[in-house]
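Shipment paperwork, digital attachment
Item: protein structure file
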Amino acid sequence: MPGEVLTGARAKFSINGLMLGYTTSIRLNEEFTQEPVKVLGQLEAIENVETAYNVSFTATGVRVRNKTLKSLGISPLAGSTPEALLANVLNHAEMTAIIEDKKTGTIIYQIERVKVATISLNIPAQGVATLDMTFTAIKLKDEGDAF
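Attachment content:
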């Protein structure tokens, strides 16, 4: 059926209701970690057991002047002392990220209890400055789950 495929032009990405400048791509990871149970006397595992569940995502975007992740409340402030930095990081609130279909208004993914993990800036000699932002989260819901 036409119009059912999510495209970049239809996707809207926000964290705590804020659109992050000019986001150019999102890479979302949901990991179900399994460990093989191996016993003496045989080569193959007897079972793969679930040991962890992890959610992370990377957002890439164009760096926009005066719209920093710190000023938007996405990343903790540095602080003027090591103690202030520690307090800012420890007290920084968890967030909620949303990927929405702009055409229908449907929430495609809701990423809960999000925290920023890394921020990388790339400034090429002949190109646009970009940010790669990696986030961790506790839970990922899609339109098959109840929001």
